[in-house]
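debug: dumping io for the single-chain case to check the tokenizer round-trip. Nothing else runs in this session.
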Amino acid sequence: MGNILINGVTLTPLNIIGANGGDVLHVMKRDDSGFDGFGEVYFSNVNYKMVKAWKRHRNMTLNIVVPVGEIRFVLFDDREGALNKNFHEVSLSRDNYFRLTVPPMVWVGFQGIYKGESMLLNVANIAHSFDEADRKEVDELNFNWS
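debug: decoded output
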């Protein structure tokens, strides 16, 4: 999986509880690290090989889990004083079941790597606002998605 060397970004291992009739996939409790209040929760589907990049939130903290499929996340920190201005990757899935917490001002892109539709869940600390985020085209940051 690799370490993510970006200040404020964390990977938290999560539990999958086997249950008769279907498993329970834990996401977050209000006293978990990374929880910074509640704004909204949403799902986003990602098709195989589809890239959604680049976005950074100015105020929103993301708490992302992938309960279905597999998604590769790529992070880039160009904040002033950032010690490691490299790309950092992590793939999340049910087999690699972690919560990825991303603080404000860190660039995020992601790609579906499961041969089918993948789904992510984001527990955000504030409600989404189009004006709260910065965007770049997929080729504006020099990352090879292939």
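debug: round-trip ok. The CA atoms of residues 6 and 77 lie 7 Å apart.
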